[in-house]
Amino acid sequence: MVQKTGAGQHDTILRYTKADKFTWNPQYSPHREEYLRDFYKYNEPDGRRYRLISCINPNPNRPNLTYEWRGVKRVWKFSRERMKRMHEEGLLVYSKNGIPSYKGYLDEMKGVPMQDIWTDISPLMGVSREWVEYPTQKPEALVERVVRASSNEGDLVLDCFVGSGTTAAVAEKLNRRWIACDLSRFAIHTTRKRLLGIPNVRPFVVQNLGKYERQAWQSAEFGVRELAPAVESGSELPHSKAAAVQSDKSPHSKELAYRKFILDLYHATAITGRTWLHGTKGGRMVHVGAVDAPVTLADVKAIAQEVWKAAATGKDSPHKAAVDILGWEFAFELNETAKQVAAESRVHVAFKKIPHEALDKKAVEQGDVKFFELGALSVDVKQKKKEVTLKLSDFVIPIDDIPEEVRKAIRHWSQMVDYWAVDWDYRDDTFHNQWQSYRTRKSPKIELEATHPYPESGKYTVLVKVIDILGNDTTKTLDIVVK
Q: Is 0.85 topped by the overall pTM?
């Protein structure tokens, strides 16, 4: 934990432990050059640097170490056997009086033990190579010292406020396992992009665990008491306090009230009696996603199954097997993949994002709430023997999500792609980042083609993941046959 103190003179790092047994690895700083010059004055023929340290024991009351060595009787630091071994290995140097000293090699010294005040780590500047333009970013050298001191390789490091991703990046480079959390989607996007820039980064998963602002809104508007224990700092409830408490409603009716509110915004008709289907519009069914959880692939499978069973079976049934899935958030790897899964069930699926304006009472009253479909991705595939080339040919994201000043600067769809990555042999498990192209300050242009030579013939599933300038994921699965 870093605590700001005073008028910006320094930060204070606080250390806590859960038990009396904990990991603590003392850290060392390099010796000053003046110290090395004054003490490590000798060099072996191979350039190895050393100093001479007396073999005489400063404690005279050591009978077991008192003996004669090569004609000199003293109280020595080492046993006779150890002295003999050091002599044979050429580690002893004798004075004119026959007093031995032993060689203390510089490369065997850990350095100067770190004290409480650290002055050897410079703050980040805009010209720093690791700078990612994140306001609270900490130097990797600082976090590296903390991680090295308090953990070992293979240990788990948790950062609940990951920000620019420094802790996760350092933990990855130091071969620690890690969990990184943040309320800011921009922070997660920045962290993920930073991790992908690490050579041979291990596979990792990005998960969305809910939005506290929306939970607070739901509690105020519909009386839902199951509020998360933390609310994002500085957030305000967007509606009046008139409907702050509706304690007479059961949890079931509260959920119905929330769904009806969203369905009304979408100009759909509410229905009852179904598990995953909550409304109809234009002959299509409508599903309303939860406030505090993203729509997942498992949700889509259940929705598609119920749509197929409900199609043309009576009152409130859809005219065709089609559904609009409304959600605040969607699992990062959902859009294209879920559509393919739904297509296998012969159900047409459209994903519509519930906009943030739904929380704004004024926007609701003025009718300014619009639902837009998720991003769409087009990928062209070319094959030449066992070599496969992918080319991004089009990418579209909801234009209302793009800030107006950014929107004006966009001249080509590729400008909406921040980076994209490919798993050339996706096996329905964790996405393996085997190739990527991303923008940096030095290289703002992104590659639109990727080529991969397959060593063996066979059927392969390729997963393409595009991350837009807002940090959203759009994925596309391709089945490739290599002959």
A: no
